[in-house]
Write a structure and sequence with these properties.
single chain; 417 residues; six-stranded parallel sheet; 27 strands; globular
């Protein structure tokens, strides 16, 4: 083994280690925060709202090692489920106008790894098969979903099973439809973080946590029968439930937590619950007794730790953040505005619908101006000029000293930091 070979091997190992610790983007948190998505891969421009074919979203995510940007805004009506490949970044923040909604059938990230999804609306429909979920990520690894709206699932909005190193942050998981109208079922994922997300207008399972989960700074509003559901199975589950706010809506029972068993090992701290539906945020602190009477086994220390104490806000602060920015919030559409309006009523408004048409359905979204990108590297000419890059040379994948590429700098510049 030559000296040069050893040096080259060490350099490769160092770079690989450094890359593994690079945040997906500034503000990424939780167990999925180190996903690199399509970093260094091919840029694919979505140029139309077609269900399939060249320039479609379905085609964009059909192959790995891609960064998907949008040259069009609007509703992509799909007639069958879309499967997403590994090593993909879906940059919904690049869509002009009112952004993108993928409507009609769900997306599957199952059996894939290393995915970043930001500022996207994923909506199922009553036209999906009974038992379908809007977003499925089973047997998956190393993914982060940031500011994603997930609605109108027929069984649950969200299904995650046997997956690890996952984050959902600043999402809306709401308004599930017939037959179950449930928020999410999490079956044996480990190292799963869900934080600063709004769970709204689901009958139950906000979520159902048969999981090793870090559940932090979420708001659960207007559940029907039950808010957060324990694993209540023979398998052992470890749930950290920290600084969340449970707020009853007009349809809610008093069961903001339920269906735990002795195999549910719960660490809880700083949670609040407001059950009086009086239009004012004035909840009480959730106590040990609330969990004990539901038969959970209480733990004295955190069990799933990725977020630091400095990253965690109080339940009251989390409510304000969720109200302001959860979901595809660069420009909220009519569906998300309505749900946020329900939440802001603090108990006075909210419904659980049987099908999406009852809620008004998916309305059109306006497109907008698309900036010229001469070299098609994902960065508009005007931004390249401002940042002293070459609009005629594909330099989007050039890495800067902090580990982000030029293209990632552009994508990150489009959203609040």
């Amino acid at each position: 083994m030559t000296r040069s070979f050893i040096i080259a091997t060490l350099i490769t190992a160092f770079l690989s280690s450094a890359s593994a610790q690079q945040l997906a983007f500034p503000g990424a948190q939780g167990f999925g925060k180190y996903a690199s998505g399509g970093r260094g891969g091919t840029v694919y421009h979505v140029t139309n709202l077609n269900d399939s074919g060249a320039g479609s979203f379905r085609d964009a995510v059909s192959a790995p090692n891609r960064i998907v940007v949008f040259d069009v805004g609007g509703v992509i009506k799909v007639n069958s489920r879309i499967s997403v490949s590994s090593n993909i970044t879906i940059a919904g923040q690049t869509a002009p106008g009112e952004g993108i909604a993928i409507y009609g059938h769900g997306l599957s990230f199952s059996k894939q790894k290393n995915v970043i999804v930001r500022y996207l609306r994923l909506r199922g429909s009553i036209g999906m098969a009974r038992g379908s979920c809007t977003l499925t990520a089973d047997d998956a690894d190393n993914m982060i979903f940031d500011h994603v709206s997930v609605q109108w699932g027929r069984w649950d909005n969200l299904h995650i099973q046997n997956s690890t190193n996952m984050t959902l942050q600043y999402c809306i998981i709401g308004e599930a439809i017939d037959p179950q109208r449930f928020g999410a079922i999490l079956e044996r994922p480990e190292k799963l973080t869900i934080h600063h997300s709004l769970w709204i207008d689901n009958q139950s399972r906000n979520p159902k946590a048969k999981a090793g989960i870090e559940y932090v700074n979420n708001v659960v509003y207007n559940w029907g029968k039950i808010g957060f559901v324990g694993g209540h199975s023979s398998a052992h589950h470890r749930q950290d439930i920290i600084n969340n706010y449970f707020i009853a809506g007009p349809i809610s029972s008093d069961d903001f937590i339920a269906m735990f068993s002795a195999t549910d090992h719960v660490y809880h701290s700083g949670n609040k619950v407001d059950l009086n539906k009086d239009g004012v945020l004035n909840g009480r602190v959730v106590t040990d007794e609330d969990f004990i009477k539901r038969k959970a086994t209480l733990e004295s220390a955190r069990q799933n730790v990725s977020m630091t104490a400095e990253e965690i806000q109080s339940a009251d602060e989390a409510y304000e953040v969720v109200l302001r920015s959860a979901g595809a919030s660069l420009k909220r559409d009519a569906v998300d505005k309505r749900l946020i309006g329900y939440l802001a009523s603090l108990g006075k408004k909210g419904e659980i619908f049987h099908k999406e048409e009852d809620a008004g359905g998916q309305l059109p979204l306006k497109g907008g101006k698309v900036w010229k990108d001469t070299d098609q590297d994902g960065m508009p000419d005007k931004w390249e000029k401002k940042n002293r890059l070459n609009r005629r040379t594909q330099d989007g994948n050039t890495l800067r000293s902090d580990g982000y590429s030029n293209l990632e700098y552009y994508l990150n510049s489009l959203v609040p930091q």
